[in-house]
Amino acid sequence: MSSANPISPAERLIQEVIKLFPSFMADPIDGERCQGNAAVCAIDPQGGMFGHIFGTDKGKGRWYCGVVHRKVVQVWSTGYATGHFEELVYAGKLDESQFGVNRPDFVGWEGGVPFLLEDGSLLAAGFSGFRGFNDVAILKRAAANVPGLRVKEG
User: Fold this and answer.
1) Which of helix, strand or coil describes residue 143?
2) Using 50, 70 and 90 to split pLDDT, how confident is the model at 1?
3) Phi and psi, residue 139, nearest 5°
4) How many contiguous H segments (helices) and E segments (strands) does the chain have?
5) ∠ CA(44), CA(3), CA(150), 5° rounding?
6) What is the signed CA dihedral for 135, 128, 85, 153, rounded to 10 degrees?
7) Which residues of 39-55 are buried (b: 16+ CB within 10 A; e: fewer)?
């Protein structure tokens, strides 16, 4: 890509996840679980969506893409990690109505992660295919290779 059109942090994050995917597939539980099929998605501050579907089984790819879409859109609209957002709402610490997410639509699974860019704007990301903690781990490990990208805490 030319220097006149640099790759965005969201695109770079997806590229890094693609590079890491084989090492996460080496885990016998996750490898057996997804059989090489998974999906990753990121939404940048301007609303651009970037993603990748792994594997050759289009039915499973469609399923994982649907799940990751739900995860990333929830992160994009709330600014909170999936799983954590639900904990805060059910503990009475957040009012979900301010985010446009209704309780029947909560994701609840791990794998949606909010990141901050250098200017403080949100980059929402999601992964689906592995166990929840590894869905999060692949995103965080990939983000560590993207300059200026850091996990949004809280």
Assistant:
1) helix
2) very low
3) -65, -45
4) 5, 5
5) 35
6) 40
7) bbbbbbbeeeebbbbbb
Where do the H-state alpha helices sit in 3-102?
Answer: 9-25, 28-34, 58-78, 84-90
The pLDDT of residue 64: 97
Note whether 151 and 145 are within 8 A (CB).
no
Helix, strand or coil for residue 152?
coil
- Amino acid in the structure at residue 49: M
The 10s digit of each residue's pLDDT in 47-90 is: 999 999 999 999 999 999 999 999 999 999 999 999 999 999 99
Rounded CA-CA distance 48/42 in Å is: 8
Report pTM: 0.93
Distance CA 60, CA 124 (A): 23
